[in-house]
Amino acid sequence: MDVWSIASGSSGNAYLVRAGDTAVLLECGISIKRIATFLARVGVSPFELAGVLLTHDHSDHTRAARQFSEQFDVPLYATAGTLGCTALRETRRAHVVSAERPFALGELEVHAFAVPHDAYEPVGYRLIGPSATIGIATDLGFVPADVQRQLLDTDLMILEANHDLEMLRTGPYPAFLKRRVIGQHGHLSNDATAEALIACRDRAPGTVWLAHLSPTNNRPDLAHGAIASRLRQFGLGHVEIQVAERHRPSLRWSATPRPRQLALF
Ligand SMILES: [Zn+2]
Ligand SMILES: [Zn+2]
Predict the structure, then answer these.
(1) Single pTM value for the model
(2) Distance 202 CA to ligand 2 centre (A)
């Protein structure tokens, strides 16, 4: 099982998951050209994709979704709330996902779970493959108990670390936007991400990709340093922490023959 980060952040998100013959795109918020170029580089044809999974209807997650689905005849999977947005409403190959109904997508078992965010019916996903379990939770204002449970025992967790609270407080965002980011339906701070991981104790993810970092209110070194040092304080120094870059393919994780992390480029 392999996972790649293609792009991560408010300018656009896309990740690729491959388990045996099943390849799935997670999010479709960058251009088709960029996704197709990346897929060609790793030897995956867009026509072979088993599906595109979307978390919510913000354009940094869905920008190219409908066009991608139609151009390559790939089904889209998202909640009814997400599929109801104007950009996706007419999508022909749409499948409704709901938090209570896990389903099989090729070799992957897909579990959606609700997250608190200012979109209509946003979710994260837990994907159980033959050799590993991975999760994604980005764009959430806090980590409720239900989401906390989804972090447990994952081999790879793609988890938001959007902002450093001090950088946000003293930064250039207008007050209303600061309130939105910090609010219960906004985005996760480095501190909140660290606390959620610490609460997993000995069931913490093997590897964590810090994702959806703000270019204005966070820095990769700051997020990595803050979270890694908090984890070390709580005896979780073995959890591998990596930062997904915003604008280019940056990380690859592979479950076979044994968990390891590789820089792609
Ligand atoms: Zn987003
Ligand atoms: Zn969002």
Answers:
(1) 0.95
(2) 30
